[in-house]
């Protein structure tokens, strides 16, 4: 067991846990786009709502950090973690919004390689949401980093193969450009999950 | 009133004020592209001049930081601020240069959404140039950060709608690609103004 | 001559020297693509091998940093340098892999501006590999930074002119998109060499 002179204010851990839940929720909504005929407007609107919830949560976290004299973790680490969790959500929301704005719903269904990216992001969201409550106590976080990094490699490979597919001649140039913008947001979300994991690793090394 | 044991060497503040003026000047020149028939070569050449002026200024700032024993602000913060102001200028210059190099002057006029981005950047340049002289004394900087962040959100929205416009089918694929490169530089300039504001916030929090 | 209370454990310097050699080897392989009819599959496969070697080397470096009580250079600087050398290799490998995956070998030969980028990268790789063994003793590193920065400027210019060429109407839209992805990796490699140089500058300033 770890002892600490710092107060273990549960409110901070609660913020991170809630942000993790929002990411799972966001990816559930985005994944509705994996089938043909999805209601892209509804997906986009619900993602905007989850993203606004998360903005508020991040804002409340920053206020709590600024108004607390002794924080359970280093101030700058909590700030970084909040900001990076928010970045993941921004990319998930952007991906859903672009599918709607570009009118990509006219396609039969996304290419398999894009669904591979959805799968990677869903897995990253779930294990991140599982790991965040374990920040309090720093339990079993190593498996989480290793798995996030493994998934990020899967995501890189899926992204690369998605571009090969997009450039194959199957789609017209404007559709390629639109889908590439969506793919770029998905890949950025994948990277952003890795940044979250790196910060959790930094915190864990400091506290251990 | 703020007291400090550090010398208030005006030369440092003067560098930042001059960099701010260069950004206003750069955006004035770039904004000439908002109307059809603009002389893109002349815009590009004058932007290169302003950018070179700014490089020299940044170089002089670094030399002054390195040769001064006690600086009025933390060395690394002044270094970051100089570098970030220079980044904004680089993106403004790049946008103007690409319009010229790609021969985009053959278009009737930029789409409205690109002019929205010019408007955001002009506003960011003006309030940044207004704020920089206030670094000495740290007066009223909070309104500046809030406004820069609000403008950056406007810029994100304008950029997103600009891509929707570019991908609408109104332009051929190569023109879309060229205009997207210009749009990316404008959006990067918008973000770079936010990085400047974040550094000024950091300085201000430390010194207060 | 520089004196230090830190142990001069040669193993660390050896890691960096080996990473430098890998970059020269990687660029030699990638440069085979400069002529028409290159065996893109073989280039890609050999680059993957060099990249895997380098991953292992970076991994070993991190383990050595973590298991050493007093390191000859600051831990975080060695970590950053290892990570940035690995980034360069990743971009070189990605460029070669994309040429193969996209089937770009059907083109007669890369445009001259892309070969200019190869030349810049070859020069950067060589002077980086020359400089890394000089980390031990911090000899003559200033000329190296200046030259890397000069080359990075050349690379920026070559990249900009490469896009002008790609957008000139000479290639169809999908080929443009494919070649732009390759160009982006080359430009990222160019920037990544500059990040390496910046870290070496930081180390050198601290240790001098």
TrEMBL record, chains A, B, C:
Family: Belongs to the UPF0111 family.
Gene3D superfamilies from the UniProt entry: Phosphate transport system protein phou homolog 2, domain 2
Domain of life of the source: Bacteria
InterPro entries for this protein: PhoU-like_sf, Put_Phosphate_transp_reg, UPF0111_domain
Name of the protein in its database record: Pit accessory protein
Source species: Phytomonospora endophytica
């Amino acid at each position: 067991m770890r002892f600490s002179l710092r107060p273990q204010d549960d409110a901070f851990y609660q913020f991170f846990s809630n942000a993790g839940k929002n990411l799972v929720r966001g990816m559930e909504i985005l994944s509705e786009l994996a089938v043909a005929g999805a209601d892209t407007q509804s997906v986009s609107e619900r993602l905007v709502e989850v993203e606004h919830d998360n903005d508020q949560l991040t804002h409340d976290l920053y206020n709590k950090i600024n108004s607390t004299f002794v924080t359970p973790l280093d101030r700058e680490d909590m700030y970084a973690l909040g900001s990076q969790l928010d970045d993941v959500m921004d990319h998930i929301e952007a991906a859903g919004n672009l599918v709607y704005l570009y009118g990509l719903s006219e396609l039969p269904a996304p290419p398999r390689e894009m669904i591979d990216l959805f799968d990677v992001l869903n897995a990253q969201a779930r294990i991140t949401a599982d790991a965040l409550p374990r920040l309090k106590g720093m339990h079993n976080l190593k498996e989480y980093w290793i798995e996030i990094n493994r998934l990020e490699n899967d995501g890189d490979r899926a992204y690369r193969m998605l571009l090969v597919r997009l450039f194959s001649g199957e789609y017209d140039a404007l559709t390629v450009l639109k889908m590439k913008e969506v793919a770029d947001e998905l890949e950025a979300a994948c990277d952003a999950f890795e940044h979250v994991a790196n910060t959790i690793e930094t915190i864990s090394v400091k506290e251990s």
